[in-house]
Amino acid sequence: MNRRMKVLTASFIALSGLSYLIVSGLKESGIYYMKVGELVRSPPDSSKRVKVEGDILQGSLKKGEVIQFEITDGQGRIKVFYSGKAIPPNFREGTPVVVEGRYNPKDNSFQAERIITKCPSKYEAKGEKDDDR
Fold this sequence. Notes:
This protein folds into 2 domains: 1-30; 32-123, CATH 2.40.50.140. Helix content is 32%, strand content 31%. It has 3 helices and 6 strands; from the N terminus they run H-E-H-E-E-E-E-E-H. Strand 3 and strand 4 (77-82) form a beta hairpin. The N and C termini lie far apart (75 Å).
């Protein structure tokens, strides 16, 4: 194989890899990100994946083969069902979460494929205290 052919082959492989990364990134960025109230008021097509942010309601968490809980943002509330294996270590009632999956507006339920817990920011709390002075 001559030098020119090696360069062309390496360029093709690099371009293919870059194309894959770009397409994968575009797929991920095509997912809507909304708060619970927005989702309930303007539900997307049930075939579209969305990311929804809210807090796990106290008293709503039921662990079993399928984990069930409700999330709210103060403007809306949805039931979430998750049958995945990976549960974040700080997953508990009152915790802010982002769930990724599909929403069914007919029964106000959300089938989560992924759960991400958020940490309340200590910087926000400090800033709020400073505003009280």
